[in-house]
Write a structure and sequence with these properties.
Elements: H1 5-23, E1 30-34, H2 45-48, E2 65-68, H3 82-100, E3 105-110, H4 126-136, E4 140-144, E5 168-171, E6 184-187, H5 189-199, H6 214-247, E7 255-261, E8 264-272, E9 277-278, H7 285-295, E10 301-302, E11 307-310, H8 318-336, H9 339-345
Parallel strand pairs: 1-2, 1-3, 3-4, 4-5
Antiparallel strand pairs: 5-6, 7-8, 8-9, 8-11, 10-11
Helix pairs in contact: 1-5, 3-4, 6-8, 7-8
């Protein structure tokens, strides 16, 4: 157990290194992640993160941390066809493995949905296809479910939707619903047994001062009870209503893309739908859209690129979801009247 997602990611790095040392293959020390991905802001994890703001001035990523392009369907160079996107990602991962050498690559990190990168939803089957490539090359697959786990996308773990069982899963947020700090690392039996056999009677030197803190553990157990006793099912129902409602905004002049799964969604705004022109920097989308939404009684994540991110609580009622949708349209209408947005639309 950890205190959150960032140190859960750091823990996987340490366990993976230990695993390969125990196997007698310490040369497998290269790590691959996905552009637009977020894997925490710790010293090591921030280099697996592929968002420039987390690199500038910090001297990361390190030379053992590598990236492949995102599946970002709305702006993917290969177009929006799901199979073409999957094929492009598979080809990119294979090329990166060939570049580094399969005997050097330790692990591949991916989020089932890229949250902090803009709520980027891969095509169904994407996770499974990338997982298969890792299996083929004896590369450990790490599913970062800090955002997606515990019903956020529907099932308890988003990996279930692609029928993927990774070697590692990192979690946090939904583990305690944010009431107290707690994260966790799940690892497969064969990874655990390799580490345990390699350690023998010696301790594995890893842990945190507040790992498995009893207060956090009690909150986590109560959250699990709520998930199992109806909250997951309510989240699925509310998520369906949310996605249907957001898709009804497609006719709005500013809406370029609507994407999501369950109770994790995004609306990407543009000034030209055909050319997919982002909102201008002069419109200060991250700040102004957030402030409009907040004033309207709507809590969202407003990205500087003009993306509105939604992650409502799983306990939402129909009225709650309808209120979110009504206030979202109000916020979009107000943004349409922004002088800098209007000026960009006239070009």
């Amino acid at each position: 157990f950890t205190l959150g997602g960032s140190d859960a990611i750091d823990s996987t790095i340490r366990f993976i290194r230990y695993y390969y040392h125990a196997k007698g293959t310490p040369q497998k020390d290269q790590f691959i992640s996905v552009e637009h991905g977020y894997h925490g802001s710790s010293t090591a994890g921030s280099g697996l993160t592929a968002i420039p703001a987390f690199h500038a001035g910090f001297g990361v990523p390190y030379d053992w941390q590598h990236k492949i392009p995102s599946h970002y369907a709305y702006r993917n160079p290969v177009g929006s066809d799901p199979q073409a996107i999957i094929d492009a990602s598979v080809a990119a991962l294979r090329a990166k493995i060939a570049e580094l050498g399969a005997g050097r690559v330790a692990a591949f990190y991916a989020e089932p949905i890229q949250g902090s990168g803009g709520v980027l939803v891969p095509p169904t089957g994407w996770l499974k296809a990338l997982h298969a490539v890792c299996k083929e090359h004896d590369i450990l697959f790490v599913a970062d479910e800090v955002i997606t786990a515990f019903g956020r996308t529907g099932p308890l773990f988003a990996c279930d939707e692609d029928d993927v069982v990774p070697e590692f899963i990192t979690t946090a947020k939904g583990l305690t619903s944010g009431y107290v700090p707690m994260g966790a690392v799940f690892m497969s039996d064969h990874v655990y047994n390799t580490i345990a056999d390699g350690a023998g009677k010696a301790p594995v030197g890893h842990g945190y001062t507040y790992s498995a803190h009893p207060v956090s553990a009690a909150v986590g157990l109560e959250c699990l009870r709520l998930y199992e006793e109806g909250l997951l099912e309510n989240g699925r129902k509310a998520g369906k209503r949310l996605m249907e409602g957001l898709r009804s905004l497609d006719d709005h002049p500013l809406v370029g893309d609507i994407r999501g799964r369950g109770m994790l969604a995004a609306v990407e705004l543009v000034t030209d739908k055909e050319r997919k022109t982002p909102l201008p920097a002069a419109a200060d989308p991250g700040r102004r859209i957030f402030e409009r939404a907040w004033a309207n009684g709507l809590v969202i994540r407003a990205f500087n690129s003009g993306i509105l991110g939604f992650a409502p609580p799983l306990c939402c009622t129909d009225d709650d979801i309808d209120g979110i949708l009504e206030r979202t349209r109000m916020t979009l209408d107000q943004t349409l009247e922004d002088k800098d947005v209007r000026a960009a639309m006239k070009r």
